[in-house]
Write a structure and sequence with these properties.
By secondary structure, the protein is mostly helical. It is built from 3 helices and no strands.
């Protein structure tokens, strides 16, 4: 939906149809890079936050 909106906006403002996707592809590539950076920044949960075995046994989780 975002891609179509940007394309239509550019065509309505005089950008040739052959070049209408140029800005859209840069925007989508930027969002992909931001996604990779966010994914890289996620770390594993520290062991102190794990549930103790006694609690798991009480709840009945194997």
């Amino acid at each position: 939906m975002l891609v179509n909106y940007i394309r239509e906006y550019q065509i309505n403002h005089g950008v040739p149809k052959t070049q209408a996707y140029n800005a859209t592809m840069y925007i989508m590539a930027g969002r992909l890079v931001i996604g990779f950076i966010c994914n890289y920044m996620i770390k594993a949960v520290h062991e102190r936050h794990y549930m103790k075995q006694e609690v798991l046994d009480e709840v009945g989780v194997a």
